[in-house]
Amino acid sequence: MAVRETYISKTLSALGDGVAKVDEKIKALLADKQILARILKYSVEEFKEYDILEIINRIEEVEILEVPVDAGLSHKSKNEFGKISGSNTEDNVPGEGVIFYDIRFNITKGKKRIKVLINIEAQATTSVSRLGYHIENRMTYYLSRMISAQKEQEFFGSDYDKIKEVISIWICMDARKNEDSIIEYQLRPEVKFGENIHPEEINLLKGILIKIRGGKNMTQSKNKLIEMLEYVIADHSVEEKKNYLKNECGVEMTKELERKVEAMGESMGRAILQGMLEDAWDKGVAQERRNTEKERENTQKEREHAIAAFISFGIPKEKILEKGYTEEEYTKVKKKLFS
Hints:
It contains 11 helices and 8 strands. By secondary structure, it is α/β, with parallel strands linked by helices. It has 2 domains: 251 residues, no CATH class; 51 residues. The strands form 2 sheets. Strands 1-4-5-6-8-7 form a 6-stranded mixed sheet, with helices on both faces. This is PD-(D/E)XK nuclease family transposase.
């Protein structure tokens, strides 16, 4: 059976290269250790008291899903603030298929330098109608995979106390005007029955949803992290972004970080990416609706022609209805035939 390519898929395919390049450049910028350190400090409770440099020094390896298009961005920097490639972004669990993480790295926390596995995803839309699912459920799935993938890697056999904590941070770029927010999801025990019961805290998995906004004439977010993220991926000039990161956020503008900011350009921010996707989707939905209505109309005509043929050949009404045609359809066709 031939599969009809939808207008949506055709349009998004046509946009493919442009959207992919924007996506890669945003991820490359987010994967810089200086940016990662600020994401962790201002969204993950256990890193709140650490200073930025200490967080940077605790980040072990960073890898992004796609190698950036610009050759200069794949350079392995020896600078302590650079992006280091090496951690595996592919999660292949037997029987569960393969998924790829946008950004994945390990970090240590506390005096004992306990290892934590962290994944960061950049998400253009959280719309259920567009994705077909709630983003929180996908985040839960990623967290589950980050746990299950540790077997025979971080722990062996039934030594479950060796499971490492996992954190999945989702930066979602389609929040409305007053929806900029940071939401944390984690397991918490709740005693349903019993006195003086103090259950063991389960701190193995945590999901964090960072909702940022795009567009013009936006009021500045009251959250320091959201303000930074909204600014660097919005439609500001390269120089404005560099100055903002340096002067407002205290970021050291290394050559590599400058290249990442320049690669995004003045017109390749979140607003452009989102605009491209929304335009493609809206046009696609409208066209698909027209196609569906036309197909439904054609199908209905075919059904009515079939009923007319059955009646002409003297097939009893009950036999026609047994074939899946409705009473309403039968009455409508019979009325047309004998009017």
